[in-house]
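#lab-general

N.A. 3:47 PM
ok so I finally got the sequence cleaned up, no stray characters, all 414 residues accounted for. can someone with queue access submit it? mine expired

B.Y. 3:52 PM
send it over

N.A. 3:53 PM
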Amino acid sequence: MKIELGIGGRTHPLLLPDENVQAVLLPKQIEHTRTGAEVVFRALRVPIGAPPLREVVNPGERVCIIASDITRPCPSWLILPVVLDELSAAGVADSDITVVFALGSHRGHTEAEMRHLTGDAVFERIHCVDSDPNDCVHLGVTSWGTPVDITRIVAKADRRICLGNIEYHYFAGYSGGAKAIMPGVSTRSAIQANHSMMVRPGAHAGKICGNPIREDIEEAAAICGIDYIVNVILDEHKQIIHAVAGEATLAHREGCQFLDQLYRRRISKRADIVVVSQGGAPKDLNLYQTQKALDNAKHAVRKGGIIVLVGSCREGLGEQTFEEWMLHAEKPEDLIQRIQRKFELGGHKAAAIAMVLEDADVYLVSDLKPEAVEQLFMKPFSTVQAAVDAAMGKLGPSASVIVMPYGGSTLPVE
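B.Y. 4:20 PM
back already:
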């Protein structure tokens, strides 16, 4: 069997004997007749739990559109023109609209990256800014103790419209919905307070009810206020194949149900080897983002098995605190002990990697230097084939293999 796995802007081929392949976890194929902006247009015609957007906003109101940053695969350049048409139909002037990129704890954008996210026409037409964690308004505190500190321009807007894509999130359950507000346009301390609950029961991929992090996120967003969401679901080629629009919670839930049809995949048992790709750029720009695929893969590998993680990581580790934790630990156990002593945003992903390493070896296929990979407690490889051959050499020629070509989106369940 030959399988192509995305890494950066290219692919790596993998050849496997058919008898070793336990499963290739691909998205379920759901018949659809519309793609791209047409899907978004249709969702805005049939909103969920809310009237049409043009009936929600009014002339003279200051409108913030909160959009995903460059680390997310959300094709905002397809969504924004459709949303702007709705606002224009309601009589909202372009000068009253601001697109705010939800950075969370990520780096700021270059102008070229902003243009890419919006498209040139929208960038020239609408004021576009990054969220600013140093200029926020304190709006309150959630019942979980999380401060609701929101970027000023968002907090002071008359209307807030949140864009995003829905996929699995390893402790918030799903992305999308209210995550545009928390952590999207929140302070680092607020994000840290929310994310510190990742160690609690119920904080895992594919779970909403009883998930403390998702519940806290939605409570924070309710304090801030979301007037509308427009969320999309992408196929494995990053095409929009479904969209939901309307009330923040109801529309998001319907989007999650559609995602489950595509990407929640049942397995008969855990495999000796799991080969997992984040799916290529932009989702594998750094290890901070590529970790999502690793966390999904842990649900498919047996204890003592090997995960072959495929991600370019051409921008390095991707986050300062995460990098400091990873590079200063003498062994993976140090990271787990450190997070138990004190939760720190960025360090949480280092600890999550360490928890995977407790049960499986990780072979990393990336653009990082081999000595840098070894410092991360992983074994470096330059090609997927070499990594899998080495894994089979260690575990034996009859080792079972599960392949996850779109591991950041795919959730294996037994």
